[in-house]
Every structure is written in structure tokens, then in C-alpha cells.
Amino acid sequence: MPVFTSLRFKRVYMPVFATLLATLFFVLASNDVSVPNTTLIELSISAAVETQPVGVGGDAADDAVIWLNPVDPSLSLVIATNKKNGLEVYDLQGNAIQSLPLGRLNNVDLRWSTLNGSENSAVVAASDRSERAIALFSIDNVSRHVRLAGRIHLDFKRPYGLCMYKSGSDIFVFINDKSGTYQQWQIQPDMISGKLVREFKVESTAEGCVVDDQTHTLYLAIEDAGVYAVDARPNGEVDRKIVDTVGAGRLKADVEGLAVYRDKDHQILMASSQGSDAFVAYNLEYPWTPVALISIVDGIVDGTSKTDGIAINSSPMGAFKKGVWVVQDDNNAWPWLNQNFKYVDMETMLDQIERARDSRKPNARRN
Ligand SMILES: [Ca+2]
Ligand SMILES: [Ca+2]
């Protein structure tokens, strides 16, 4: 190695090498070498179940909500929109068990209430573009039958995104039209009328939204801009806080479905980054630190792409011991079929996040 022993190396390269080494030490010393838990983790996971395809071709499957069966959790339901046909109801194995061909229902959500009397029953709301209304449904806790209960008609031209909020015994629906106007309706006990309690506007098209009832926070996704937090209470401020923006490196337009996961160890806000076929998981509290960038890849069933709506239920049900995450899939492959929904086991996903965190700790034990 003549170069290393030459006079030229000692005079010219050695000082450069020493400077580089010193710089490296300085950089390492000035940064925490251990990676904090807040560092974004990249995960690839596979869905455990997929639903039967929707009965209509093209872009039809859109949004979903999960109904926890209070009698037998293994008999819980996924209620999903076919935006060209109405509501589709699936069991936890993905079998289609009921279809409600009511027109162009776009988004769907659910809350438990005593609106119908003393019995605790679910109220399902869907944005109804055919009737320009909020369509309201009830579910029989024993037969699991989903039934149209009524509609609240709107002055919107094109009802679009929808999510629900429960505060005490009050049940609210947030619904927007494609121009970005949001209305907040309080559902009345007759399930056919509502009280408009608030209206506000965002600057461009927004669809996906979810409310974290525990913190009274409405999270909304403006498709080309990002995810924002707004006080969900009827008398709350309409000022928005930024959760994340398109261009910050994690979300790629359109930003679509949002969902919330809560158990004693994990509190997550999930967002669909449709433009990158991915999802971003955030801590469910200010300043909503991003936790993981997630792709749902081919496994037992095909992976998901260009996802619109998502839904999460944090309760154990059937094979899903820590709840289930339902994801719309734009391109249902193997073979190519109409669109459908994929079910991701939250326990598997949370385990993967924990393992990725552990492996990044400087003294991680590798099994
Ligand atoms: Ca797919
Ligand atoms: Ca498939």
C-alpha cells in the first residue's frame, strides 16, 4: 500500500482525513445517537381478510365503518359504501351478507346511542348523494339487520365526506359538500330530523374525516393540502390546527380516509395517503407526531392501492384480538375483480410497530 506510507499521504491526505474524522465525531456527538420512538418507522404489512368484490365495476367501493356486535363480538359487521349502489354489509370473514341498494352513498360512520329509547343501539349515518341527504340507519342487535331509519335533507348540491361525533348523549354528524362547506347536524330522536348547529368552510375539496370523541376533536383531510384538527363541539372555535401537510414528506395528494385507534397502550390517528399508496400513523395527541409510514402489501390477499376510506375499531372481535382496520382497495387483484375492502389485524400491525421500535434502540437484542 504505497500510498499510505508515502510522504505525500502524510502531508496532504492525513490532515484531510483527520479533519473528516473530527467532523464525524462532532456530528455524532451533537446528535442523539439513539433513535427516539418518534422517528418514523416504515412498515409493510399484509391484510388478513378481503371482502367479496362489490357488485359494480370501476371506482365504486369507498368507505366503511365497523359495528361491534354487543351480543357476540365474533359476529360483528363491516358496513361499507358502494358509491354507485348504496350500502354493503360484510361479516368478519369478508362475506357479503346484506346489500341496501339505496343510491349513491359515499361515506359512512356509526355511534352508539339511546336515541331510540332505553336500548343501546347503533346509529349509522351515510352521505347520500342521490337524495342530497344524511341517510340514517339502525342495526338490530340480534338479527344484525341494517335498516334505513330516515333521511335529513340538505341544501348541498353534492354531499361528500361524512363522520360522526358523540358528546354525552348527543349524536352529531359532520357532512361536507365538494366545495368544502362543512355542516354539523345534531341528530334528533326521531332519526328523521336534525338540528343544524354549526357551519364552516375549508378552502378546497375535503372528504375523509373522523372525530376522536374523548378529546372532542374533528380531524379532517383536505385532499390536496393535508390533515387538520378542529374543535368538534358545536360552540367550539373553527380555527384549524395542522396535523400534517402534503409536501412535508409523508402525505401525497389526495389525502383521503382518516381513522382513530385507542387502547390502553396505543392511541393512533391513521391517514390514507392515496397518492403514495400508503398510510401514515400519528400519535393521537398534539403535536400529532408521525409514528409509521405503512404499506399494505400482497400476502394471503393482494395489497391495497389508491385507498379512499378507512375505518378502525379498537375492540377485540373474532380473530382480531386488538381490533381491526378496514381499508378500501382501488385495485382488487388475483384475478382482477371489482373493488373491495381489506381487513388488517391491528394486533399484527401494533406488534410490527413495537418490533421496529425495539430494533432501532441502540442496545436492541436481535432474536
Ligand atoms: Ca389490491
Ligand atoms: Ca383480491
TrEMBL record:
SUPFAM superfamilies in alphabetical order: Thermostable phytase (3-phytase)
GO MF term set: inositol hexakisphosphate 3-phosphatase activity
Lineage top rank: taxon: Bacteria
Database matches in Gene3D superfamilies: TolB, C-terminal domain
Domain BPP span(s) in chain numbering: 35-353
InterPro entries on file: 6-blade_b-propeller_TolB-like (IPR011042), B-propeller_Phytase (IPR003431)
Pfam families named among the record's database cross-references: Phytase (PF02333)
Signal sequence, start to end: none
The name this protein goes by in its record: BPP domain-containing protein
Lineage: Bacteria, Pseudomonadati, Pseudomonadota, Gammaproteobacteria, Cellvibrionales
